[in-house]
User: Fold these one by one.
Assistant:
Number 1:
Amino acid sequence: MKTNILFLWATPRSTSTAFEWMMRQRGDFVCYHEPFNELYYYGEDRRSERDAGVAAKPGHTYAAVWGEILKRAETEKVFIKDFAYSVQHMMDDAFLEACDHSFLVRDPKRVIPALHHHWPDFTQEEVGFDSLAALFDRLTVRDGAPPPVIESNDLLSDPNGTTEAYCRAVGIPFIEDALSWEAGERKEVSWYGEGTGPWHDNLRESTGIKPQKSKYPPIEENADLMNIYQTCAPHYEALCAQKLSVAKGV
């Protein structure tokens, strides 16, 4: 790591919270769960009216949260899992340069049905692939090389190998013990506006990063979802082409 702030940028329903939970088990990072996505829906300067009836906490703004994160990073290492669409309006050069960046992607054929199950009225922006790809491309041009990318199927099928490759790529120690934990409540990944709800049922029951049991109707059965998939697939394929090689650990 070049800075004290490490971002994992992902899309919803991409197994990113399970990865975040592993990072919490390490004990060497202060972890933030989607701080900007919470602001996107529930902050004083929210960007979405999805839950407009939920009152914002006084002072809960993008500037205040970013200021808090920067302050923590003066003395501690910070890990943040979030979605690029939540914060793309404030991603100036200073914001990007204050952090290290990494990416987790999942096949949109898995992401879209899972998101539709929870939010049948989700928007194209909320799927997250457009903003994720734009950020990835911007960082690649800036740095002359792509930032680290891991793929959800790799993570689920080989959590040790994928996590080890990730740690090597971002410059942090690999801690194998962090890949297992006890089942239980996960209040650390709840938002004040909605609680954990059904979003993290799998995580509450989990004891490690493992293949998931959730099943949804095939995306091919829904023409609207297939249209959205067609816009997301090229972004997924482009990011996947740059994913870390788990076998080689590079």
Note: The chain has a mean pLDDT of 91.
Number 2:
Amino acid sequence: MMKKFLFTCLFVLTTVAAIAQTDNTIEFLGIPVDGNKNEMISKLQVKGYEYDASSHALLGEFNGDNVAIFVQTVNNRVWRIMIVDAEMYDNEASIKFRYNRLFEQLSNNGKYEVVNGSTLDEKEDILSYQMLAPHFTFKDKSIHGCVWYTIIKLNGKYGIMMFYENIDNAAREEDL
């Protein structure tokens, strides 16, 4: 009887600990940014993304745009999800509009708070924003993650590269 009681207590404590652990993990499309790469890829495929073996990316639509999604790991644990525009823009006005729309969407979403960044005005040089990036954290401080994005330029065209990062799984200085 005592063994059964101890087993039940251990089971309850383990379950509570597991629930508490997943509650503070950043999510991408409702999926915790955690676990191993194959699990994450499988979960994204269930959401309708198609895996492209040649690029190791998942292809599909995110926030109204065609994207390539890359699952990045540290020590075999998912560290971040990288989302890259699949269709690049020819002109600066188009990418500024997309950049500003994304900033406003994240700023107006009740889950996030702005750590740094702002919208771009018409006169700003967008190439300076390749190194600077709006950075958002969660209003719920128990969630250990951040979301940020930046403008990229490839072959004369512009796009957005966005990240959902699990801070708990990031590389540490002991890896250097």
Note: The beta strands are 27-28, 31-32, 50-52, 57-62, 65-74, 77-85, 112-116, 135-138, 145-154, 157-166.
Number 3:
Amino acid sequence: MLSTFIWKGTQNKRNKDFQFWQQHNHPIELNSKDRIDRCLRYIHQNSVEAGFVGKAEDWLWSSAKSYMEGCEDKMELVYLV
């Protein structure tokens, strides 16, 4: 993964060495169940899109597996209402 962070760092002139986070943000108000679900799907698919795993639930540190009924996970989910 370090080689990916280095390569991404060289692609952006605002970096010194590495890039881990995107350098822009677009705040989105999570004001409906549909919007929350879409954001969760997007987040869960990041490891798939990056080519790290074939399925979102295979990424060890993702909560995607917790959203599949009956699956144990490494993370405890806390739901805020």
Note: DSSP finds two helices and no strands in the chain.
